[in-house]
């Protein structure tokens, strides 16, 4: 739909370039370039008419929008900028093409061609990741559902359109009769001016700094047609400013909005643009005004207008600085009136019934927020958490470089060191990863709560990275800030792996987050040699002192080697991890080695504070270590059942997230692979499937029965096996008198008695109110009644948080009033004696201490036959 407006042929730029007499051009030259532009315009009009079909929610992008840019460009150029006929042709053609690729029609191969682009593959990968994380479910990347395609196509077209505009001037379409059709019919013009037209069209999405870098040299004159040069920077500035300024009602006709009915943010764009009048200039300012004020229920649209005009203001100021630095012509308008002040802007972009006070949510004390949410308040007082987060960031960077440069799955390294410089120790974590550009160092890295890997900038900086299968460990964008737990002086050296040594940068924090970081070029010897990142933090606490990084506890004076700590923090990292002392580098972790090292070495790695002699003495238990494998060969962990000593303190292995320890577990020693439940990664859920867990637990039961002689250990292990959904086999479960019995032995004994006295609360403890003996006598001399059976009250759970009890949440085990073994024993009793058995609670003799009887309340079972005969 074409919207009428001021005729572009009456604009100052058009008349000055093509109609008014000029000293540098002949009338024939003017007529030639004008005619050629009109020829391109006729074809481009058909092309841009398709934008509304493929991006139906967008404001007007048809030929009326392109014509209007002659008007907006003229408003800032009139009397200030000279544009010769060749420049006007190039500018006009660039205007026609700058948005033309926001349609499938710009791709001769249509939708299938779009599907071959890196942007499409990245967008699909991003949608798949979002679907996976939200629990919606996966889909086939090669054939996404129609609903997904409808979401992706507009996003990809917007993302590609500026880059695609660069080739449209030279691109051909094939007609039905096999002829090649071009936007620029004249082959000489197409070959000479086509690349420049494409660059300028593309440049409207570049930074102003990039304009100066790539377009600084003028294009010479086309022989036999003109003697005029083309100032490419000037034209690029005119295009971007003209496009930014075209925000008035010509782009959002009221009736068109009614019949297209845009929604969401698009609706807000229409709502504010349909109110704006054609802007005009006062002194050096562009002024936007409205006819109809914004009512209270239209406040959101007003604020979007405010934000948009602030962006236009920044554009004008950046362009003005660039043009002034070149010492050539500058534009008439350098700013937007009212930008930066909602109250002043409301004098021209009016409101009714409300006043726009900039009272939006904001963070006035950034250091405090970072300290609370990115430091000890989130992670606790464990300094090793900051080391974990630094290793995680480094591992993400290495994984990204592997994908980006198609390197092997074992390539790359993270090196950790603790050099002493003067009186201070520094923690240094360096990687050979993908590195950060200046834009990332000063953008996503410092954007608290934003993960670079999940941001649009990641797709812009590294096209194809997401589509290659890059799945970052970092998801929340807060891990870097944990470094300030260790000290306020932090240095970040980084260089992108695909850029030269001169692009290395240093971002320096001299006083934590309370002062602004300083960005500077990295000295040649300081920048990572082969690309990557090095983070250095001056430790506020001596690492060897109590509470320090290597200390074994907050009050302990003993410490562990750095290599031991690093291995414990990242026990199964998929990136090589090493420590450096002086010039010597020692390997700590190699990808996949956690599945190959000895059982003892794995236990030592995950539990650096454990007593070495204790580890050596538990050789029998370590022989139980087995991988946890799914039916399709997927590995979910490597571990063995090791019943915890205490129900209130996790003392087993770890759930790890992408190779980094996250949550300590009960009853199991080893590693379970998991996924994060919280931003702090202090809660994780194991990934193992129900079937794989049950099979592993059943295998553990067989091994424990065969290798472990300790019957109490067997009974506690039985509880863990049942909790995992496994079969306990011949594990001991009931202590009857002095004998421990397995399932078949217990059933056999039931057949030989007519009364069962049993306690489901485990071993008998001293009771001060009931036992007439000294506690020491009870501990040393208590003898259990030979007629009494007990079931241990061990908790077989592996992971417990405020929101998760695992593995019961996975296996769906019933919530018994007592333990799983107790429930099994009750079932065995019913199976042996029938459902009509009697069950009573009575006080009976639990045992003796010397000649003193110890009485306890216990459960008494009798078979139905015994009850009927009065037994």
Spell out the key features of this protein.
31 helices, nine-stranded mixed beta sheet, alpha+beta, 871 residues, single chain, seven-stranded mixed beta sheet, elongated, 16% strand, disordered C terminus
Task: Describe the overall structure.
- It is a single chain.
- This protein has 871 residues and is of the alpha+beta class.
- It is 38% helix and 16% strand.
- The strands form six sheets. Strands 6, 7, 8, 9, 10, 11, 12, 13 and 14 form a nine-stranded mixed beta sheet that branches.
- Strand 1 and strand 2 (180-182) form a beta hairpin.
- Helix 4 (63-77) crosses helix 11 (232-245), helix 7 runs antiparallel to helix 8 and helix 8 packs across helix 9 (187-202).
- The protein starts with 11 loop residues before the first helix and ends with a helix.
- 44% of the residues are buried.
- Mean pLDDT is 86; it is low at 373-379 and 867-871.
């Amino acid at each position: 739909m074409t919207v009428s407006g001021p005729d572009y042929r009456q604009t100052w730029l058009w008349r000055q370039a093509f109609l008014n007499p000029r000293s540098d051009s002949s009338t024939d030259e003017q007529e030639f370039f004008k005619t050629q532009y009109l020829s391109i315009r006729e074809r481009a009009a058909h092309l841009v008419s398709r934008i509304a079909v493929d991006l139906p929610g967008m404001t007007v992008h048809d030929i009326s929008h392109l014509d209007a840019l002659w008007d907006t460009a003229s408003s800032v150029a009139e009397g200030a900028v000279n544009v010769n006929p060749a420049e006007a042709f190039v500018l006009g053609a660039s205007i026609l093409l700058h948005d033309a690729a926001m349609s499938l029609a710009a791709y001769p191969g249509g939708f299938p061609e779009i599907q071959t682009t890196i942007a499409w593959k990245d967008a699909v990968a991003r949608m798949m990741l979002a679907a996976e994380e939200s629990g919606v479910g996966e889909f086939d990347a090669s054939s996404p559902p129609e609903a997904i395609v409808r979401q992706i196509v507009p996003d990809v077209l917007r993302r590609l359109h500026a880059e695609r505009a660069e080739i449209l001037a030279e691109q051909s379409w094939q007609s039905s009769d096999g002829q090649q059709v071009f936007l620029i019919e004249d082959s000489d013009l197409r070959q000479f001016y086509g690349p420049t037209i494409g660059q300028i069209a593309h440049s409207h999405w570049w930074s102003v700094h990039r304009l100066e870098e790539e377009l600084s040299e003028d294009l010479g004159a086309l022989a036999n047609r003109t003697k005029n040069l083309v100032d490419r920077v000037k034209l690029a500035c005119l295009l971007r400013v003209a496009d930014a300024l075209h925000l008035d009602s010509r782009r959002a006709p009221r009736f068109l909005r009614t019949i297209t009915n845009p929604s969401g943010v698009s609706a807000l764009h229409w709502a504010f643009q349909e109110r704006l009048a054609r802007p005009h200039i006062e002194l050096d300012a562009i002024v936007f005004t409205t006819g109809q004020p914004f009512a209270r229920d239209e406040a959101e649209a007003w604020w979007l207008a405010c934000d948009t005009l602030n962006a236009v203001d920044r554009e004008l100021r950046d362009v003005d600085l660039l043009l002034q630095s070149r010492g050539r012509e500058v534009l008439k308008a350098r700013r937007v009136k009212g930008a930066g002040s909602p109250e002043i802007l409301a004098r021209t972009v009016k409101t009714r019934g409300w006043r726009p006070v900039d009272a939006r949510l904001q963070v006035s004390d950034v250091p405090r927020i970072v300290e609370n949410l990115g430091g000890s308040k989130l992670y606790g007082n464990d300094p090793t958490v900051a080391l974990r987060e630094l290793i995680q960031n480094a591992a993400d960077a290495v994984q990204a470089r592997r994908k980006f440069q198609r390197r092997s799955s074992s390539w790359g390294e993270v090196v950790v060191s603790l050099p002493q410089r003067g009186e201070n120790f520094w923690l240094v974590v360096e990687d050979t990863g993908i590195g950060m550009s200046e834009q990332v160092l000063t953008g996503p890295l410092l954007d608290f709560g934003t993960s670079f890997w999940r941001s649009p900038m990641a797709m812009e900086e590294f096209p194809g990275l997401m589509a290659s299968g890059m799945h970052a460990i970092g998801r929340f964008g807060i891990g870097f800030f944990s470094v300030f737990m260790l000290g306020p002086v932090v240095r970040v050296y980084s260089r992108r792996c695909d850029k030269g040594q001169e692009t290395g940068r240093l971002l320096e924090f001299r006083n934590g987050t309370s002062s602004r970081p300083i960005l500077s070029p990295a000295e040649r010897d300081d920048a990572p040699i082969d690309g990557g990142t090095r983070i250095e933090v001056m430790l506020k606490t001596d690492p060897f002192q109590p509470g320090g990084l290597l200390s074994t506890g907050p009050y302990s004076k003993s410490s562990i080697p750095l290599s031991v700590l690093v291995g414990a923090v990242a026990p199964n990292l998929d990136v090589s991890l090493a420590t450096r002392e002086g010039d010597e580098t020692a390997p700590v972790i190699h990808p996949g080695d956690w599945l190959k090292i000895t059982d003892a070495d794995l236990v030592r790695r995950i539990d650096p504070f454990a007593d070495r002699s204790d580890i050596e003495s538990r050789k029998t238990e370590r022989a139980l270590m087995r991988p946890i494998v799914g039916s399709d060969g997927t590995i979910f962990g490597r571990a063995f059942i090791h019943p915890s000593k205490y129900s209130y303190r996790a003392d087993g292995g770890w759930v790890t997230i992408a190779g980094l320890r996250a949550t300590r577990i009960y009853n199991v020693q080893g590693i379970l692979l998991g996924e994060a439940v919280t931003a702090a990664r202090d809660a994780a859920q194991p990934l193992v499937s129900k079937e794989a867990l049950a099979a592993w637990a059943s295998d553990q039961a067989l091994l424990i029965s065969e290798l472990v002689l300790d019957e109490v250990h067997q009974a506690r292990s039985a509880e863990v096996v049942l909790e995992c959904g496994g079969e306990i086999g011949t594990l001991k479960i009931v202590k009857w008198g002095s004998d421990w019995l397995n399932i078949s032995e217990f059933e056999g004994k039931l057949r030989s008695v007519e009364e069962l006295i049993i306690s489901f609360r485990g071993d008998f403890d001293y009771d001060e109110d009931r036992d007439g003996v000294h506690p020491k006598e009870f501990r040393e001399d208590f003898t259990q009644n030979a007629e009494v059976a007990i079931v241990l009250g061990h908790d077989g759970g592996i992971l417990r948080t405020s929101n998760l009890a695992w593995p019961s949440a996975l296996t769906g085990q019933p919530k018994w009033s007592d333990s799983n073994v107790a429930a099994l024993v009750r079932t065995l009793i019913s199976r042996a004696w029938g459902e009509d058995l009697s069950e009573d609670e009575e006080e009976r003799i639990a045992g003796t201490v010397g000649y003193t009887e110890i009485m306890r309340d216990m459960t008494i079972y009798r078979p139905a036959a015994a009850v009927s005969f009065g037994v």
